[in-house]
Hints:
There is one protein chain. This protein is an alpha/beta fold. It has helices spanning about 15-35, 55-65, 85, 120, 150-160; strands at about 45, 75-80, 105, 135-140, 165-170. The protein has a three-stranded parallel beta sheet with strand order 1-2-3, with no helix packed on it. Strands 4-5 form a two-stranded parallel ribbon.
Amino acid sequence: GYDKRKGDDYIEITKSQYDHLAIEFYRAIAKNLEQHGWLDYAYILVDETAYRGYEPYLDFIRLLKSDPLTARIQFAWCLQCPGAFTYKTVPQDSNYAFNNLLDIYMPETNENKHYWEKYCFSDYGVEPQRHKLWNYVTHTTRSSIDTPGINNRAMALEVFNNGGSGFLIWG
């Protein structure tokens, strides 16, 4: 990795070397997926951003979106907080950094959080479209895995009524 910090357990390389390695690695994956007809179903799930902050994610997403083949790999962000909506590289900038880079927004819904409110999208310039919205739940697997079928039907209906098209359980 690059920008090594004390306690990091990896070999440090330059950002340029990292970018070259990452794009070549993901291009090979994308090429293989394309040959099998699976590239349009490829996702990278983003979660747990607190350790490094948003800049490494922003750099990585921009890198993959800069290549026509790897740009087809979709980024789905599990939103534990509104950070992916509100982050700006420069605080005075009028644009939010991740707009037009994320393919799917997955607001967290559980006993403690509910980021599905319409303002979470419109306040930050994100057009809430059904194919761009999934829901994800944490610490609530007991309500959908190994439970009666009515729970699963109720959750799907809630996702649909909220304008989404997918559901992820992080358990």
